[in-house]
Amino acid sequence: MKPSQLNYDELSTLLGQHNILTDAAEVHGIFCGMLSGGMALESQDWAEPIADSINQGDPLPDEVKEQFRLLYNATCQQLLETDFTLVLCLPDESAPINERGQALINWVHGFMLGFGFHQADLTACSPDVKEALEDFADIARMDETMPEDEESERALFEVIEYVRVSCMLCFNELGQSADETQQTPKTVH
Fold it and tell me: In whole angstroms, what is the distance from residue 108 CA to residue 102 CA?
């Protein structure tokens, strides 16, 4: 799944067809948060926490689980790229600005949730990561409607870019690549 295939509309429609009351942005945010919070990239332990969070603990339908697996794998690949290729799973730029803004808020909610699954102790985090998480908390509380104008478009673009870069910052500081987990010596008790 390439970044262009992280199709917000298709995945959100699939979730709606299975009566899962969230959107693709929130799911992608949860994945990014889990990985940025320290979940190992090769881990496949995302299905149960996601089902608990977005499907009232019921198992995910196979079709949804498969699409999530593709999204998860693409997200892992993007986070490992050295050229900052992470693409947030949000509505297309042709969507109304308030729909895109709400999806970004949903993405940030998901990120905070996923991050919390794997990172409870923020004392070891750098000041930059702490600031990003505080900013994410502020973004998650935003609820004003935005006018459809050039200034609002610029502002939304800047916030999306800030969220994208902040996610990568968190991942680069706290995330675990497969190489790191293999290099960590295992302790036998």
Answer: 10
Q: Is 176 helix (H, G, I), strand (E, B) or coil?
A: strand
Over residues 106-158, the pLDDT tens digits come to 999 999 999 998 887 788 789 999 999 999 999 999 888 888 899 999 999 99
Q: Tell me if 150 sits within 8 A of 12, measured CB to CB.
A: no
Q: What is the CB neighbour count within 10 angstroms for residue 176?
A: 18
Cβ neighbours of residue 91 closer than 8 Å, sequence gap 6 or more: 8, 9, 25, 99, 100, 103
Q: Where are the alpha helices (DSSP H) in the chain?
A: 8-17, 24-36, 47-54, 62-80, 97-118, 127-140, 150-174, 178-183
pTM recorded for the entire structure = 0.88
- What lies within 8 Å, CB to CB, of 112 at 6+ separation is 29, 33, 133, 136, 137, 140
Cα separation, 8 vs 19, in Å, equals 16
The C-alpha atoms of residue 48 and residue 146 are separated, in whole angstroms, by 36
Pick the CATH number of 3-179 from 1.10.620.20, 1.20.120.740, 3.90.1150.10, 3.40.50.720: 1.20.120.740
Q: Domain coordinates of the chain in residue numbers?
A: 3-179
